[in-house]
Amino acid sequence: MELVSADASGRPHFTAYLSKYLQENVLPLKVTLKGVHPGSRDAGPCTIVIRLSWQHLGLNSPVSFEPGDLLGVMPENSHDMVSKLLKRLHLDSNFTSFVVQRLMIQKKTLTMAGPREEWVPYENLPPATIYEWFKKFLDITTPPTQLLLSEVSTYATNQTEKENLNLLSQDVGVYEQWKHSNRPTILSFLEAFPSLSIPPEAIISKIPLMKPRYYSVSSCLSMSLPTSVDLIVGVVKFTTEDGSSRNGLCSMYLNEAAVGTIVNAFFRRVPGFHLPHDPSDPIILVAPDTDINPFKSFWMHRRELMKVKQRLGTATLFGGNPTNREATIDTEGQTERQLSLKIGGIEVPIEYLSKADKYVTPDRVIVDDKTTKKIFHYKQVRAFKSSKLVFDASTTLLFLTLYIIILTLLFLVFQICFFYLL
């Protein structure tokens, strides 16, 4: 590795590098508000509301997004995990305070004379300190791949560990079981194989680069919030089969971000998940798996339209929640949601679907609650020329899968009939 002083020139700005790497207009948004969502239950997973603003940037051109769009957030690994990983790799603070201008890795190439190893530059990381690489650029929470296990097995000094690494790298079944049971991070993997003594360059180039995590926007651009966007984020925490605690990378990053923290993010349009161009068109919103949070920007937008006396079509929302229905209905967030829906012109009360009760097919949508059962035929809904169905991603995927199955069956029937006719 080629090192230069920490104040070396030519060091790219992190946000500018992300824009180039992702081919997106990445903005350094500032956390201006954060709190626990009213619908978050004490006994269950925490759900937070976080507001991100670009007002401090003083942009010449306005930032715009529409209800239904996504915000791609670039997470960062926790300081505690990065520090432990650097210690495990025997990289002290003096070494990590220097900027790495260039990382050289060994590459095997085939020549006429046989295989040859040569040192080549690793181009996927910008000049930065090793701490910054592990903190911002490398996804160290992702389980190590079989390729990584195979590459590092040669550095194991314990014979039993070396054999276990070879087994994991060669047997897909054993590897998948190990990955599913332990949900290993790079740190927990290295701790499980203490005899491994790996040079930094040998493992850095094998760790996947950080990827954005996407969240549906939960607000709309308005006179009161012209330079900010809200997100509703469920904080992911779980325990593996061996009893180890794990956290969702991006949700925990946002949960720990204090007011004033800079979060790099960008907007991404979702062409098939928007309100109709004519606000007077009636709409039906169906969210059987994802809860109703992805639709919050829709009724926020409708509320803004009502302020300017815009004529709105009727809107029906059937929201689901993968948790227990009784627990969902009892939350304080139910009152807040019903008020928001009423203000947004969505007239039909929310019907909650649990995993045990929901049943959605291309032909019908069945909604169960304690007092009534309603059946809405999909074909009848399609008969209304001015209606627009807005489904979440899971429902759209279900319909697409069923469509492909039906086409495949029709093709097989045609082939059989053609064979008998011959």
What does this structure look like?
- The chain is an alpha+beta fold and 422 residues long.
- The chain contains 15 helices and 19 strands.
- The strands form six sheets. It has a six-stranded antiparallel beta sheet. A three-stranded antiparallel beta sheet has the order 1-5-8. It has a three-stranded parallel beta sheet with strand order 15-14-19.
- Strand 17 (364-368) and strand 18 (373-377) form a beta hairpin.
- Helix 2 (79-88) runs parallel beside helix 8 and helix 5 (146-152) runs antiparallel to helix 6 (159-170).
- It is globular and about 75 Å long.
Could you write a compact summary of the structure shown?
With 422 residues, this protein is of the alpha+beta class. It has helices spanning 14-22, 79-88, 93-96, 130-137, 146-152, 159-170, 172-182, 186-192, 200-204, 249-256, 296-307, 325-329, 333-343, 378-383, 393-421, and strands spanning 2-4, 27-36, 47-53, 70-73, 99-102, 104-111, 114-121, 128-129, 213-216, 228-234, 237-239, 245-247, 262-268, 283-287, 315-319, 359-360, 364-368, 373-377, 388-391.
Low-pLDDT residue spans? 1-10, 321-337, 347-389
Rg on CA atoms, Å: 26 Å
- Structural class call reads alpha+beta
Q: How many DSSP-defined strands?
A: 19
**Strand-residue proportion:** 15-25%
Topology of this structure?
Layout: E1 2-4, H1 14-22, E2 27-36, E3 47-53, E4 70-73, H2 79-88, H3 93-96, E5 99-102, E6 104-111, E7 114-121, E8 128-129, H4 130-137, H5 146-152, H6 159-170, H7 172-182, H8 186-192, H9 200-204, E9 213-216, E10 228-234, E11 237-239, E12 245-247, H10 249-256, E13 262-268, E14 283-287, H11 296-307, E15 315-319, H12 325-329, H13 333-343, E16 359-360, E17 364-368, E18 373-377, H14 378-383, E19 388-391, H15 393-421
Parallel strand pairs: 14-15, 14-19
Antiparallel strand pairs: 1-5, 2-3, 2-13, 3-10, 4-9, 4-13, 5-8, 6-7, 11-12, 16-17, 17-18
Helix pairs in contact: 2-8, 5-6, 6-7
